[in-house]
From TrEMBL, chains A, B, C:
Keywords, alphabetical: 2Fe-2S, Iron, Iron-sulfur, Metal-binding, Oxidoreductase
Domain Rieske: 36-138
Pfam family, one: VanA_C
Name of the protein this chain belongs to: 3-chlorobenzoate-3,4-dioxygenase
Length: 370, 370, 370
């Protein structure tokens, strides 16, 4: 029995088998809006300013008054639908750039410069809004559920033992391709030029109602350990069995977020990634990545600071390869008009069922304009 | 009662109220083709040459023979539909660049170099064509109506007491957004950086079958008078009430044209603008602006000539702000799939009814290819 | 009786008349896939490499192993539909760049690095593939017909008495516009700047089930003979009748290929062009040209070598004029939503019938995804 089938046996024992036939095309499943989603980095929104952002085709104006917390409005003036994010912040209100209509934190229209106060028109939609870990989150779904919906843990971003890289770009694909990409470590093959030849071993996983987990170890089969990796894991001088399969990588989709942790034995993780893929357009064929990549500081912390630019460049190269391939997957989907994925790795089929189950089927999505 | 409600009272007395609910989306109303529309500047078409232009998706070849007036043909050779405007002018005819088919002023095919004269195929459509005030006009509608349809007055372009700036660009919006933009002087708010803070006062208007008028005066509430404005109105040394509300601005939509005049008392206008927004594409979501901005020459005329470059730069900055905002209005319309305008200014609702009444509803428009 | 009607009489005697009304729009007729089509130049595909190409919207990976002939696969991995042409050639197989799935010459999946050999999934489609005359051909239709379908003769590319220029670009039009352009030599009018004024005389043609032929002679009516032409035909010192109509140009569409030969009397042709227009997108509104332009070497062969760059520049200028005009024809078709061609030259109507008869009507084309 080959190594690869052993790996399969591992996974089959821990995750349920794939039923024949999906009911819906996974790439048509909309993200579930009843979760907290980041829509901007804190540093993008200066005090006394407003910026425009998006969630699944909905334009959102984020406003940071000189005093008080950030708030989020529908980014269309009630008058002529032009973006409020082009307007001026004045006190705790934002004034549309065109005719000066003003909106407060509640979305109510509080002034039209040429109209009596008793005749003010309706205002605009608001979104529950929170700022944590350098990210601005909104709750795009039913506002009544915002308070009781758990806020994500954001990895190790608040732990001073870690240094965190904030990264992310827009990627022209459905968010599900991103989840599949990260969880299927057999795609290590694609990063061979960056990482050398690594053989992943699947160690098992978990299948829970809103969580799928996959655990892997790795053995270097040829090539040298790259700089970037040595920075994170410490140097392994050779590819001998002595070091192989020592570190365990745990990847989780805890809907709608994803995490990746690398740890040796019971030690705290050397790397802790929290990442989410936020749909941009109404069809959710583009997403914006918000990633928090936390690396455990070594004893001599300055080493990590000095090496940081190399680590940034290394992760950018990896991320570019991933972005290119998932965009090609989306392009093939567009051309074929549907999902022709022929998945053979059980944990990915488990993940696909999770994403389909937790998301919103196209036909049931009544929250968007038709 | 506040100032703004007083203004409203003024307008309510002069224009009729807005009925509940439109029957058609204003942005789907096509421009009425039974009017004279400019399609090019005279200087664009050299003698013995031909150029291509557009009206609402219809390609038009303008031809200026060495002798005789400009004429206008459908810009598609009857043979293979390539643009005649790429051809050669030969006498009073234009010859298609591909196989040399030739068409005269009447649109008739008068020569195919490799065919007997008795076998000549059908020709192409023509448009009534006139050249006035540095503009080339066509009559895109029923040619039988061309003669009896009044030709527009073109402001003060022919009056030697004025110097005229010809300007215009393509703007990616339905022409109705342009009419609304100019007539609602509350959008002065948007030009604050260029003009300083100005408070408009609505003085009343007119509501006639093919005309809507709005009159305003202004008071500077802060900031200095800009250069460009001083050139047109003469310098007002301070923002005191002494100068406030002295000049009257009269804006008219006289379908399908628009004018804006600024005058003090019974004196001739210091500024006289004639402007029209000519649909370019078949869906009329892009228009080309043709504007004639006439400024009354001061006693020492050379002052205006010297200041002209500054006036050009000033008006370009204003026009850019207007263009950006109306294109955002169109973009919002595209995204929402319809008009969500929530108008509170009665004269604009009056204008909207005029444009809807005088234009051609989408479903009745049988003149365009389906 | 004029010259042009004489020419018509000639053609009427040799080709059948145009029946009233086509059943289908020629620009909606798909190319018949049961022929050999080139999809790449040999020099584009290095040994041990793979490249991606297209036939009518079908992505094709061409693979050149270090040993053995080129083969052609569907350019989508069976797993996640990403291009195999981005993968690595390993022995006689190509390995997908993403997760390393490997495919052999037969299209069968022969390895998934993390799966047992007894569980390998289905592979991908293959195309019969041949390499001749510096071109890589595939047979996109029914593979059972590949062996018995005649392979094209490729003009004089293999004859050492000729020097051949390989040329071609993508052109944004249906292939039928290209056939019509080349066969209707009345379009000489368009190349007047490059060639001077030339009067074509139609000498007759042929109308066979899969072939249409047109023969022409030419007389220079004004202007000087251009360099490029003199290189091909030899210098004609004046435009006198002595040289007029001496050379005969024979243009054939022998479905789906086209040829153009110029010869004087019974001598071998001075120029022999073989050309084909391969549809790129699924709607066949873009084609890629593959042309083999063979010029007979003069007694002192080095003259042709020295003059070659001038000949290349001359033919590029001609080809650019042709490309621009056929793209305008396609643009007019797109705008009008159909073919409004009003053809008066009988041989072109004969050609149109041939292309319609040999191609595949849109509705019968069941081989493409809907």
């Amino acid at each position: 029995m080959s190594q690869s089938t052993l790996e399969e046996a591992d996974i089959v024992s821990s995750v349920s088998p794939e039923p024949q036939g999906h009911n819906a095309d996974l790439r048509r499943i909309r993200s579930n809006p009843d979760y907290w989603y980041p829509v901007a980095w804190s540093h993008e929104l200066k005090s006394g300013k407003t910026i425009g952002t998006r969630y699944a085709g909905q334009p959102i104006a984020l406003v940071r008054p000189l005093d008080g917390s950030v708030f989020a409005l529908e980014d269309r003036c009630a008058h002529r639908q032009v973006p409020l994010s082009l307007g001026r912040v004045s006190g705790e209100a934002v004034q549309c750039c065109y005719h000066g209509w003003a909106y407060g934190r509640s979305g109510r229209c509080i002034d039209v410069p040429y109209l009596g106060k008793n005749k003010l028109p309706n205002g605009v939609k608001t979104y529950p809004c929170r700022e944590e870990g350098g990210l601005i989150f909104i709750f795009p779904g039913d506002p009544a559920k915002a308070e009781t919906t758990p806020f994500p843990a954001l990895g190790s971003v608040r732990d001073p033992a870690y240094k965190t890289r904030r990264f992310g770009k827009k990627v022209a694909c459905h968010y599900s391709f991103m989840h599949e990409n990260l969880m299927d470590m057999n795609h290590q093959f694609m990063h061979m030029k960056q990482m050398g030849q690594m053989k992943p071993r699947f160690l098992g996983g978990k299948d829970e109602p809103t969580l799928v987990e996959a655990r892997y170890s790795f053995a270097r089969t040829s090539g040298k350990q790259p700089w970037g990796e040595a920075l994170i894991f410490g140097e392994r001088r050779d590819a001998s069995e002595r070091y192989a399969h020592r570190d365990v990588m745990t990847i989780r989709t805890e809907y709608p977020y994803q995490t990746l942790r690398i740890a040796t034995g019971d030690e705290p993780p050397v790397m802790d990634l929290w990442i989410v893929y936020v749909p941009q357009d109404a069809e959710e064929k583009t997403c914006r990545v918000f990633g928090l990549l936390s690396v455990r500081k070594p004893k001599v912390g300055v080493v990590l600071d000095m090496a940081w630019p190399f680590l940034v460049a290394f992760t950018e190269r990896i991320f570019k390869e991933d972005r290119d391939i998932v965009e090609l997957e989306q392009a093939a989907w567009n051309e074929l008009g549907g999902d022709h994925n022929q998945e053979v790795f059980p944990v990915i089929n488990t993940l696909r069922r999770l994403l389909a189950r937790c998301g919103v089927p196209e036909e049931q999505d009544t929250t968007r304009p038709t």
